[in-house]
Amino acid sequence: MANASSSESSARSRSEPDNGARKDKDGAPAKAAKSSGRLDLFKFVPFRLNRLSAEVSSALSAEYQARYGLDIPEWRVLATLGFRDHACSAQYIAHCTRTHKSTISRAVTTLMKRQMIERVENEDDRREFRLRMTGKGKALYEELIPRLLRREQEILACLSAQERKNLAALLGKIEASLDLVQTSAEADAKEAY
Predict the structure, then answer these.
(1) For 57, 121, 138, 174, which has the most beta carbons within 10 A of its beta carbon?
(2) Model pTM greater than 0.90?
(3) What is the distance between the alpha carbons of residues 151 and 57, in angstroms, rounded to a whole number?
């Protein structure tokens, strides 16, 4: 009788697709874990990362909003252009900063009016324009960087040196699992980050 049951099970497993469902100790489909019907956002890592990102952006923006009249999207444009050695497109900035293209477009328009950035022809495709910082934009960027780095240190002051290293390593692991660029050299090679 065991052999018949065994061959039935064997035939069933060959004919039924294994769609990754969990099985209990007897091979039967496992019952789904009971859900409380609520997602505890304060334990949900995507929510926590998003909230931290928004708060850190807000804390950093205090350094450039009042003093330089920049908003967060304008800073993202300058930060991206300052990070790169070459001019790039607004689409590239939108992609790299994960900011909607219309938001970047408005920031570009404002920064051009303020003569912080300028358009240059793309040498490879004359129909396309790229963006780069002007001398005025570079001067502001270089003045702002030490302030932002100091503010970053203030934000991270609640962590020990070892905890900062651990945080950087853990963030790197998550970034790697999502195939995100992690170094300047890699960003230049892939034309994205």
Answers:
(1) 138
(2) no
(3) 11
